[in-house]
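Page 37, continued from 36.
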């Protein structure tokens, strides 16, 4: 697998760029947000890549940040989402916002992308939500136990948006997961 490239920019197109590494040009597909940040021709670049192999082609997809690559790989693991759709999703918003949209079950972020309908967006959310709940950053900052408290409250049947709002109102310092859940339950039952 080709997972990282470092070389000089040889060409830039609206869908891809070419990196020259020791006389070999690698065609790397990406989205407009990344292509706008690519250095000028002849400049050096370091890029995280994913080699996507099909029967009729081997395509290389590139990202400036490792987090973008990891999210891209999570997206293409979902049935119905190919690399081009995944690039379209990554172009809609930053990865942190996309993760927040998945955890809060906001389909609108994903249905904006060509080729992603309501059912595919629902499948994406269903498959990735449990993977992301513990890592997502809550609106007012990061707190280690908040992800576990969030997961516990959602599993009890409370709406994700209500749980996130209540958890953001709780003090971040002190208390463990149980204390957070108990306090949130008091507020949610009102």
């Amino acid at each position: 697998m080709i997972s990282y490239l470092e070389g000089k920019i040889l060409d830039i197109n609206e869908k891809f760029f070419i990196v020259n590494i020791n006389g070999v040009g690698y065609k790397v597909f990406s989205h407009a947000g990344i292509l706008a940040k690519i250095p000028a021709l002849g400049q050096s670049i370091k890029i995280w890549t994913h080699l996507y192999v099909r029967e009729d082609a081997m395509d290389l997809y590139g990202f400036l940040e490792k987090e973008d690559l990891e999210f891209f790989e999570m997206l293409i693991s979902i049935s119905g989402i190919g690399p081009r759709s995944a690039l379209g999703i990554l172009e809609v918003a930053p990865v942190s916002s996309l993760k927040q949209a998945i955890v809060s079950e906001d389909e609108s972020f994903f249905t904006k992308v060509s080729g992603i309908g309501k059912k595919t967006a629902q499948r994406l959310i269903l498959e990735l939500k449990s993977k992301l709940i513990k890592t997502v950053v809550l609106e007012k900052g990061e707190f280690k136990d908040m992800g576990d408290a969030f997961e516990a409250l959602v599993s009890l049947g409370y709406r994700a948006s209500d749980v996130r709002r209540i958890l953001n109102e709780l003090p971040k310092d002190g208390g463990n997961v149980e204390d957070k859940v108990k306090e949130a339950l008091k507020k949610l039952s009102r």
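Confidence is low (pLDDT under 50) at residues 137-144. Flag for discussion at group meeting. The chain is about 45% helix and 20% strand.
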